[in-house]
Structure formats: structure tokens, C-alpha cells
């Protein structure tokens, strides 16, 4: 069915996919008949005969092989020239250069094939002057009708696919299978079934091209079962130690496929088999595996992969490395992310500023890693530092949380001198930390520094200082800050008055507290139920003044505020207690009289 003669010259680009090679060195090329080409005419001679070609090698011995009587060597140059011309008409020697005078660059001789058919081969002179036979190839001839039948069957939804393929009686060949895989419109699941059916035949073995084609088809369909079927095939190839069929890129794309369909465990399995199959993971392998694991929060496996990546010293570039850092930070693995950052810094690889900011914020969440965050601020420069207000603010906030006001203020001064320019929020953090530590003079200095920068302290800033003074019972100083706040802001915060009222109640100056409660309306602040409740309790429990308490209760009802039952009962109890005390006192006076 299929067998043709393939001529290949010295400059031929490549062989066909499936070839049969016959190549040997000989000092005296054999002379055989060429039965495949049957008829060449000479002038006045209509008899048929076979053609023989001689190489330009050494003279042959006389009658080296036993020849029939009618196959005598061509002796004249004219006859050889005529035969060369006739052979050229048959398109046999298009790539060979023949010279009757013995100066051939490529010679042609006839040889007998293994099955008895005669073939034409080309010979080339070797370095020592001997002739070398060129390659002989067998070209597979496609049966187009059967190919179309197979493609039609594979494009259908036929359940009994294997039975249909068997009924077609296809003459399987690797070229035929390759043509099927190259054809569009075939579902990946049918390609997988066809490949399994074809490889069950002894004539077909899986090669790299087939695996890659199948991977492309499955990736476009992204069906979970097909992906697992391909992974089973790859494992079978790898476990049979036939890893020459596989390559690292196939494994990488398989990891990416499992990550795409959300099967992180399968992606980790592929990664785990990579070295077992004899491949060294590269930066793409690590990145795709970490992407698949982190997006599904398989952080224990992700940490183990990250550890291997750090040990290998192989890191992805740019945005991919930034993504790895961001993934670990979002999953609460700031220390692992910092290890990646440190290695990138050692290898002088740049990390995107947004990922650096994310890492600094993640390190600030723990008191044990705040030092790393402080050090990373020194790595910010240029545009990254000018736009790095958030990482700087996060570090200052963490230092204030730890009551490390000294380092926080030093960092604030560094921001003022080198940038980024601090805003109200940064100053407020330090003012609050100073107030909480009781260092109110330091808080007022920071307040003045804030005003010198052209910033207007907000209500929160004043409230923090007022709260600090009120906690210490320094109500005169608190009133001074309140007066300054009134000058700068027409509307104050309920928290501001709440801190003052609590301060006056603490030192039992209830009338001053009552004045502040009435003053709140003038500065756009409506007292809430909590304010009334605390003040009423103070009048009842400490001042024993149920009349003012009851007045506040009536005021609450007019404003639509609700007083809880316990406090209402407290007012009645104090009122009854005072009435009983007066009755007792009056009785005592009458008894004395």
C-alpha cells in the first residue's frame, strides 16, 4: 500500500516523520537492476532494459556480480548521457548531480531493498574517498477516506467510539495519529479515548508531540475528568522511566491546568512528581504551584513549596514574585513572605512597590515582626517612598500600639525631612500615644509641630488631649484645650464632651458637668442616652440629688430618649430614701420638743 522512493541530497533540510534508513560505507558500490522504472528508449532500440548507475569511486572489478546476459554495463558516454536524460524525465534524480567523467558530488546506484524490491539510493563520497549510501525513506500514504471517517466519528457524541474505530479497520500509523490530533473540532475527551485505543496497538507509541497536542486540547476544554485522565497518562509514562517523552514545560502546563480548574491537590501532586521524573523545577514551576495552592488556601503545602524554592535560590521575576509575597501576606504568612523578599533583595531582584507595602502592613500586625517592617521602610526610595504614606503610617501605628513613642516620633521626624509628608492621621497616632502614656506635654508639642506644618488639628486631636487631662483630673488644662478647639471648629464631637463630663463627675463637680451637658447643643452636639444615664447615676449615687436626676429624666423624655428601667428605679429609690430620711428627722425634732 505504501512505499515510495525518497531521494535526499547532501543539503536536504530534514527527513519525514517516519522513515526507514539504510546507510553503509562501501569501497565499490553494488550494481543492481532497477525494476521499478521499466522502460527507457534509445535511438532505434525499442527493447526494454534496466538502468544501472555507477559511482565515481575506484574502478570496479570486471563482472563483480553475476548478471544476466542482457544486463551488460553501459560502456559509452553517449549512451550514459541518454539514460541520464531519460531518468531526469522520470523525476528520479532531481537532487543529484551526475558527471560522466567521474566528478559527481552525489552518486546514485541501485540497491535491492530488504523485501526484494529495488530502490534508488544516493551515495556521497566519504572523507577517505569511499562512497556512502544516503538515506532511504518510506513515506506513509494516507487513506483520505478513512481519515475523514475517523475524524467524523471522533467529532460525534458516539458512546461506542472504540467499537466504531475497530469497525473502520484503520491501518494505524504514527503519522495518521498525528494528523488526527492536528485536526480541529475534536473534543478533548474523544482525543483521549482515541489515543488510548491507538496505543493499545503495538504499532503506535506515545511521543512528546502527541502529549503536547492532547494538553492543548484539554486546556481549551478545561474538563476536570480529562485533566485527571491526562495526569494519569503522564504518570504512567513517567513511572515507566520513559521520561524522554515528557519535558518540564508539559508538567508546568499541567500544574497550570489544575490551578485553573481549582484542583490544588492535583497541582501539588504534579509538582511533587517533577523531580521524581528527573526534572529540576524552574521559576515557572514554583510560581504556578504556589498560585494554585494559595488561591485555595492550602498554606501548609504552599509553605513547603516556598521552602524548596528558597533553598533552590530560583525566584520568578517582577510581578510574579510580588504576587507570591501578596498571597502569603493575605493568608497570614508574613514571615514566609518576608523570607521571599529577603532572597529577592540578595539576588538584586526588584519587587513591585505595592507588594512591598502589603508586606510591611502584614509585618506590622505582630509585635515580633515590627522590626522587619521598620527595616523595610529604609528600602523604599524615589516614587515608592513618596507614595508610601500607608506603610509608614502602619509602622507608626504599630509602634504606638506597643507604646514605643520614642521610635514613632523619630520616624515622624524622618518623614518630615525625607518624605512622605505626614498627614493628620500620623500626628493623631502619636498624640494619642503620648496622652495614653500620660505625657501630655509631649502631646502638646506634637500638636504645635502639626500646626507648624500648616495642618489644622481636627476634633479628634483635641479630644485625645482633653481625654488625657480629664483622666488625670486636670480639668483646668482640659478646659483650655476645649476653648482652643471651639475657636478652630464650630462643631465638636460627643466624645469630647463625654470625656469632660466624666472628668468632672470623677472629681464630683456635678454642676460643671451639668453646664457642659447644656452647652453641647450650641456646638452641634446632641447628648445621647448614655450621657444622660451616666449623669443621672452620678446625681443619684454620689450627690443624692434626685431632683436634678428627675429633671434630666424629664428632659430625656422631651427629646425622645429612653432611660433604662434600672436607672429609673434608682431615681425612685433615692427619692423615697430622702423622703423617709426627712420623716425620721421631723419625728426626732418633735420628740425633742
What's the helix and strand layout?
Blueprint: E1 25-26, H1 77-89, E2 107-112, E3 118-125, E4 131-133, H2 144-154, H3 161-168, H4 174-182, H5 188-199, H6 208-221, H7 224-239, H8 248-260, H9 264-276, H10 283-294, H11 299-312, H12 318-330, H13 334-346, H14 353-363, H15 370-377, H16 383-386, H17 389-401, H18 405-418, H19 424-436, H20 440-452, H21 459-471, H22 475-488, H23 494-506, H24 510-519, H25 529-541, H26 546-558, H27 565-592
Antiparallel strand pairs: 1-4, 2-3, 3-4
Helix pairs in contact: 2-3, 4-6, 5-6, 6-7, 6-8, 7-9, 8-9, 8-10, 9-10, 10-11, 10-12, 11-13, 12-13, 12-14, 13-14, 14-15, 14-17, 15-17, 17-18, 17-19, 18-19, 19-20, 19-21, 20-21, 21-22, 21-23, 22-23, 23-24, 23-25, 24-25, 25-26, 25-27, 26-27
Features:
3% strand; single chain; 4 strands; mainly alpha
* Model regions low in confidence, pLDDT < 50 over at least 5 residues: 1-137
Total helix count? 27
- Fraction of residues in β-strands: under 5%
Helix content bin: 55-70%
What is the 3D form? elongated
Quick one: biggest sheet? 4 strands, antiparallel
Secondary-structure class: mainly alpha
Mean pLDDT: 77
Spatial order of the strands forming the largest sheet: 1-4-3-2
- The end-to-end span amounts to 146 Å
Strand count: 4
Rg value:
47 Å
Short description:
The chain has helices at residues 77-89, 144-154, 161-168, 174-182, 188-199, 208-221, 224-239, 248-260, 264-276, 283-294, 299-312, 318-330, 334-346, 353-363, 370-377, 383-386, 389-401, 405-418, 424-436, 440-452, 459-471, 475-488, 494-506, 510-519, 529-541, 546-558, 565-592, and strands at 25-26, 107-112, 118-125, 131-133. It is mostly helical and 593 residues long.
